[in-house]
Specification:
361 residues; alpha/beta; TIM Barrel; 8-stranded parallel barrel; 4-stranded antiparallel beta sheet; 13 helices; 12 strands; 15% strand; binds manganese (II) ion; Mannonate dehydratase; EC 4.2.1.8; manganese; iron
Length: 361
């Protein structure tokens, strides 16, 4: 397992030197966050991120926020004209040494939270989701009064976009994903790249939008679209685990064994009976997920792919991009590495014990 850390590029308040001071880190994951949707990512901009990381001994094999244009998700005729740009970007990523491309297929919004600074009793704060609040909101005017979302588009554009999705069923969304993968997976295969789809976050319907990657059957269906390592998954424990019906280790047991999990996002969530949740600190005792079981499932699958601590709380007075502070993600990495080492050592010991007392001595 290669531990990586999201870096937002030169504008990130967390510099690479600090990131490099986290023990055991393999590298970073980044993106061209400011490139307009559907435009080609230039090679020199990708390699400049890669080179910046390399100056600190950090590798950049993975990109995230490979954003899919709404016209593709909506299945509009313009999607044909967009595909050459996506293919060009894949070529540029491969030419820059990238191996894994994380993307999602969520309509309009990448992720939805109702609070960015949900206060925890210890004085830290974190991202949270209140289901009934989201379900109560009237977004028909294109105004979404939630922090962090709804500002990506002007109200009129957002209203029009939400209107367009009214005619798109979940089955049509599947068709549109199939079309997209049909165009890109063969190209990725040729280039030696692996696409890695991230589930819808949270894995439920929001604002009446058609969301399709929510449970284990959905993940199975994604993999069945094209049976190729290039058509893979980013498994996000905190996303799929925020629906308690989803058993995260089962996802890993099934999909990592098939070599289709290329990247994992490891974080814990505290989930309440009514579906509300907040992003807790990483240890098992802080949330609803058994992180040791999740790591054990990855270890059992001989997982050699990439992992990031995903998000963290804001602690020790840190401010910055919500979910992406330095301190709590660094603590998360240390905890995850501790579990990983412990699981590995236990297994070695068990093997030696089977071989008899002489081997143990
Ligand atoms: Mn994630």
């Amino acid at each position: 397992m290669k531990m990586i850390f999201r870096w937002h590029g030169p504008k990130d308040p967390i510099n690479l030197q600090y990131i490099n001071q986290i023990p055991g880190l393999y590298g970073i994951v980044s993106s061209l966050y400011d490139t307009p949707l559907g435009e080609v990512w230039p090679v020199d901009r990708i390699t400049s991120l890669r080179d910046a990381a390399a100056a600190y001994g950090l590798k950049m094999d993975v990109v995230d926020s490979f954003r899919v244009h709404e016209d593709i998700k909506l299945g509009k005729p313009n999607r044909e004209a967009l595909i050459p740009q996506y293919i060009e970007t894949l070529k540029n990523l491969a030419a820059s040494g990238i191996k894994i491309v994380c993307y999602n297929f969520m309509p309009v919004f990448d992720w939805t939270r109702t609070q960015m600074e949900y206060q925890l009793p210890d004085g830290s704060n974190t991202l949270s989701f209140e289901a009934s609040l989201v379900d109560r909101l009237d977004v028909s005017k294109g105004v979404i009064p939630l922090p962090g979302i709804g500002t990506k588009y002007p109200a009129e554009k957002l209203q029009a976009l939400l209107e367009e999705y009214k005619d798109v069923s979940t089955e049509q969304m599947w068709k549109n994903l199939e079309w997209f993968l049909g165009k890109l997976v063969p190209v990725a295969e040729q280039l030696g790249l692996k696409l890695a789809l991230h589930a819808d976050d949270p894995p439920r319907s929001v604002f009446g939008l058609p969301r399709i990657i929510k449970n284990i059957e959905d993940h199975r269906r994604v993999l069945s679209i094209i049976d190729s390592p290039a058509n893979g998954l980013t498994l996000c424990s905190g996303t799929i685990g925020s629906d308690l019906n989803n058993d995260v280790p089962s996802f890993i047991n099934e999909f990592a064994a098939r070599q289709r999990v290329h990247y994992v996002h490891l974080r814990n969530v505290k989930v309440f009976d009514n579906g509300d949740f907040y992003e807790s600190a990483h240890p098992t005792q802080c949330g609803s997920l058994d992180m040791a079981e999740i790591l054990k499932a990855l270890h059992d699958a001989n997982f050699t792919g990439y992992a990031r601590p995903d998000h963290g709380r804001m602690i020790w007075g840190e401010t910055g991009v919500p979910g992406y502070g330095l301190y709590d993600r660094a603590l998360g990495i240390m905890y995850l590495q501790g579990l990983w080492e412990g699981i590995g050592k236990e297994k070695t010991k068990a093997v030696l014990q089977k071989q008899g007392p002489a081997a143990v001595a």
